[in-house]
Amino acid sequence: MKTMKALATGAVLLTSVMTLQGCLIVADGYSDDGEYSASDYRKLEEKNRRMIAALDNQVTLDYVRNTMGTPEFADRVTVDGERYDVLYYRTQRVESDGNTTRDECTPLVFENGKLVGTGQLALKRIPQHD
């Protein structure tokens, strides 16, 4: 009787293993190689768009970095004694290649540490330097 029970248990186990062979379980979050999934990027982009839309002019550079986290890119230039910082946060997908590029980000422009505008129009208002 024990042998029959052991054989039945083994058969069920073997069938279960053979049935699961080739199954793939996908969950949101990081993959095995530490990369974001497409769902994670959509959530991040939506969160960044919402946060940028809620920013008031004149908030500080430090406030934005502390609130929104590390930007994808950051630039700094001084023109005629005025310091301009530009933080780029990912807000839309252009190409689904796993790489974030500047055209997938919204620039936040700060003059002397205070937010003066967002987007390409604000970026174009930075005086050109020589």
UniProtKB/TrEMBL annotation:
Write out the entry's keywords from A to Z.
Signal
Q: Which Pfam families match?
A: DUF3192
- What is the recorded name of this protein? DUF3192 domain-containing protein
Quote the InterPro entries the UniProt record gives. BamE-like, DUF3192
Q: Which Gene3D superfamilies match?
A: 3.30.1450.10
Name the species this protein comes from.
Answer: Pseudidiomarina insulisalsae
Q: Where is the signal peptide?
A: 1-21
**Where does the source fall among the domains of life?**
Bacteria
